[in-house]
Amino acid sequence: MPGYLPKNHGKNWTHHEYLLPQPEKDKPLLLPILDLSNREFKEKFGESAAAWRGRKPIQRNAVIALGNFKDISAVPRLGRLLQEDPRPELRGAAAWSLGRIGGKEAMDILNREIAKEQDEKVQEMLKQAREKLDPETGSPKSVKEIIEAERVQAQVPFSQSSEEDKVIYYDEMESPIGPLTIAATGKGICLIEFGPFVVKEAVLQKWSRTWCGGAEFEHNEERLAEVKQQLKAYFDGERKIFDLPLDLRGTAFQLQVWNALADIPYGELRSYSDIASAIGRAKAVRAVGGANNKNPVPLIVPCHRVIGTDGSLVGYGGGMEIKRQLLLAEDSLPDRTAYRG
User: I need a labelling partner for 144 at 20 to 30 A (CA). Which of 133, 218, 268, 278 fits?
Assistant: First the structure.
């Protein structure tokens, strides 16, 4: 169905040399971006298509990139940003990056700013960043320790649910694969369903009873605006990585599987066996398949990138045609004679 393909027809950065990552070239450019004035931003980026959005998005992306590079030299500047920048979105991103970089100085900054921060969302980001670091050394915790913390959080009984669990916000969007219903708690995106709310309401209510004590659903476009924007960019072939807070509710095993799914890069594929091995449960292939099918946030946690060891598409919650379209758009539709997953 050609009309459903993004404008770039699924071509990703491997088809364009100028889009290939160049860490040594790009990394030194990031810190100066944080100090751009409005005038300097207009002079440098005023001709770009995204310039109308202002400097905040590109500065936020620079902060996130510093975290992904784990650039220890950026810690003092990120600390100043947390202390001085009036924009909560940038302060939250700085907290996340400090949690990625780690170290005693990063831990000291997080501890200091938690006591001062007034914005609830930024304060939550600061706490999450601190929880990813060893309290004694500031070193990033292992993946197993982080997953265990998520498991404990996911099993909090309803009587201890926070204020953020009393309402689940939702909105709908049209997409090349049909209507989507997106839902979020106060902590992050919790559900994506294939279909309009009126069709999926019973499924959503059941999930709410299971994980949020029967929280009410409230239509709220503003709360879901960012995820809709990022999904649209994905469908247009302009985004390959999502940068969104998630609130995943599931068993310890499901959280492990979903964590592994989230690590599958755009344009790549894994088999159920690959995922089972990645979480240290090589014999639990069938159970991995079950957890994969219960992924509450498809597309963002890309369960569509899991196929059979023989290259077959196997199942998908949204249907096989949608899975085929997604992989075709990502230029990764498998050749069964070539795949050796």
Answer: 268
- Burial letters 28-37, b for 16+ CB under 10 A, else e: eebbebbebe
Residue 181 confidence (pLDDT) above 90: yes
Residue 303 bears catalytic tag = yes
Of 143-157, 230-244, 255-269, which gets the smallest average pLDDT? Answer: 143-157
In terms of pLDDT, which residue wins out, 238 or 142? 238
Of the candidates 95, 129, 246, 303, the residue annotated as catalytic is: 303
Domain co-membership, 310 together with 275: yes
Q: Evaluate if pTM is beyond 0.85.
A: no
Cα dihedral value 46, 49, 50, 53, nearest 10: 70
What 3-state class would DSSP assign to 216? strand
Rounded to a whole number, what is the largest CA-CA distance in the chain? Answer: 58
The answer, yes or no, to whether residue 35 has pLDDT greater than 50, is yes
- Closest by CA position to 78, among listed 66, 93, 65, 94: 94
Give the range of the structural domain holding residue 46, as residue numbers without chain letter: 23-133
What's the domain count of the chain? 3
Distances (CA, A) of 14 to 233, 258, 338: 19, 26, 18
